[in-house]
Amino acid sequence: MKNAIDRREFLQRSMLTGAGVAITSFLPTTLIGKSREQTWGSQNTTAQLLKPARVFTAEDGTIHEGWVVLVRGEKIVAVGSPAQVRAPEGSKTIELPGMTLLPGLMDIHSHIFLHPYNETLWNDQVLKEPFAYRTIEAVRHCERTLMAGFTLLRDLGTEGAGYGDVSVQRAIREGMIPGPRLLVATRAIVATASYGPGPAGFAPDLVLPKGAQEVSGQAEMIKAVREQVGQGADWVKVYADYHHGVSGTVPTFSEEELRTLVEEAHTAGRPVSAHATTPEGMRRATIAGVDSIEHGYGGTEEVFKLMAQHGTAFLPTLTAEEGYAEYFDGYKQGGPFTPGMKKALNAFKLAMNAGVTIGLGSDVGVFTHGTNYRELEWMVRGGMSPTQALLAATAVNARIIRMQDEVGRIVPNLYADLIAVNGDPTQDIKTVRDVHFVMKGGTIFKNRS
Q1: Which residues, including other chains, have CB under 8 Å from residue 10's CB and lie 6 or more apart?
Q2: Which part of the chain is CATH 3.20.20.140?
Q3: Quick one: pLDDT at residue 201?
Q4: Which residues are CB-contacts of 62 (< 8 A; sequence separation ≥ 6)?
Q5: Where are the alpha helices (DSSP H) in 53-208?
Q6: How far apart are CA 49 and CA 436, in angstroms?
Q7: 157, 187 Cβ separation under 8 angstroms
């Protein structure tokens, strides 16, 4: 059996080589010169003892004053008081005075191939920016994200960049470029003629590149899922509703189509994320068995109760709505909320009241990469305590993406994905704006202590 597994891995690596090798042509000048064998960050194979002022383990929301954390290799070995944690001889001590050590943050709704629409409109990014240029942007976005303390992203669609996320993911894993752990959804799946660019506003005989893979009917649903999983998708992303012609936002798939997609994805061992902003789109997606719903701005009390009953997670993307308000509705930060922002916050409160599992997913890319912390601040404005928001960005997100035994908490045997900020973020969420220390898998990428 081992030989069969080795052969399959060899074939997969061989097939990926063509997709991955091209990325070396796109690297920014700051990345040139790293060999394939080198990895980013200050590696230390010896034990490392981290000594902050306090530790937030994300186990129960408690702050532990004076605790230390011992790391060896990629994993956390021990956590507790100095009397409990014995560092072996030769360990390296890392002093983090006045700081809180917490698990690396996660944003599980991102788009690394996008940048803010007040820089370049979405249509122009998809139609006018070459794939190589967008890949360079994605590489830089990943670096900024990691340095901001977000050590994991779930990237929910390349928005016209095909399977480029798979190559970026590979480059990060191999240590060619710095970046967070990356879960990818590749192209995403949309209903025919319901996603841009066009078709409205363009000549009907013009064949345009699309921001996602178009399908109609159950057979095409199955084919799209199989293609995307085969290319390396960790999650399958589907748009349960969207703009369709001149009718505004409406459900774009039947319950049967969505159920077929979910069954095929789950058979392949892939969870499903659904874009849905209307009550009916959210209802259909929930009944079909999707694992998370994104945005949910039009969610009602009834639909959020249904999500709670089905165990469907919610990623509210509040900062994206703020971005849309700035770009298109004249909103100024600190000014009165627009109707769209009020609607998004109302949905967030309804979801909290209904007991829905709420993670942190911001839709970054709509706004500037590396400022993902803004979603934490919006969640607190929406009614969460700072501790609840931090848990959403760590332990809760880890459960949503089924990686709770790997990341999201500071406990032994999990990966040493750790960050440190000045002060106590459970008292002031704005402390996460300025991350002084970043470690991913035991490797130090940033240390301003």
Answers
A1: none
A2: 105-400
A3: 87
A4: 56
A5: 122-128, 131-147, 164-173
A6: 17
A7: yes
- Give the residues across from 64 on adjacent strands: 55
Q: Are 307 and 354 in contact (CB under 8 A)?
A: yes
Q: What is the CATH number of domain 48-103+410-447?
A: 2.30.40.10
Q: What are phi and psi of 193, to 5 degrees?
A: 65, 25
Kindly report the backbone phi and psi dihedral angles of residue 348, in degrees, each rounded to the nearest multiple of 5, phi listed first. -60, -45
Give CA–CA dist 196/339, Å, rounded.
25
Q: What is the pLDDT of residues 260-291, one digit of tens each?
A: 999 999 999 999 999 999 999 999 999 999 99
What number of other Cβ atoms are within 10 A of residue 207's Cβ?
Answer: 8
3-state DSSP helix/strand/coil % of the chain, to nearest 5: 35, 20, 40
Q: Which two tokens stand for residue 166?
A: 């798979």
Q: Which run of H or of E encompasses 11?
A: helix 2-21
**What separation, in Å, do the N-terminal and C-terminal C-alpha atoms of the chain show?**
49
> Are the C-beta atoms of residues 442 and 71 closer than 8 Å to each other?
yes
In the chain, CATH 2.30.40.10 covers: 48-103+410-447
pLDDT-above-70 percentage for the chain? 90
Count of beta carbons in the 10 Å neighbourhood of residue 355: 12
Residue carrying the six token digits 């709420």: 358
Q: For residue range 171-209, what is the model confidence (pLDDT) as tens digits?
A: 999 999 999 999 999 999 999 999 999 998 899 889 899
Please name the residues in contact with 184: beta carbons below 8 A apart, sequence gap of 6 or more: 155, 165, 166, 169, 232, 233, 234, 235
Which residue in 406, 351, 417 sits closest to 384, CA to CA?
351
Report, as an integer, the average pLDDT of 216-244: 97
- Fold adopted by 105-400: TIM Barrel (3.20.20)
Looking at residue 364, the DSSP 8-state letter turns out to be: B
